[in-house]
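Notebook entry, structure prediction.
Reason for the run: the old model in the group folder had no record of what sequence produced it. Starting over properly, with the input documented here first.
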Amino acid sequence: MTPEAKVKAKVHAALKAVDAYAVNYIGGQYAKAGTPDILVCLDGRFIGIEAKAGSNKPTALQIKALRDIDKAGGLALVINESNLHYLVMCLSNIRLGQPCLSNYTEFQ
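New structure, fully documented this time:
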């Protein structure tokens, strides 16, 4: 399993723990470039998650997609091994009706 696949597995475990709807987005010829790796809906809230391993950062296209999600009212997250706790906190906050802020700007 690649390092990024390990991060994705941990993200999916956290999402499953709160019964979130989540799908892996797999790009291709007809796909929109930059779309986050995991698309989620939890309690009516849309979440786009870009999974990264180690010190890898999102590409410019990925940042644009995350920014677009944020501007549209969704939650745009970049999750790696060191900030998985932020995802868990956001999921808990959403369940409690509390705010959670997109964190993609920390990775620009």
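Summary: Helices lie at 3-17, 60-71, 84-95.
The old model has been moved to the deprecated folder.
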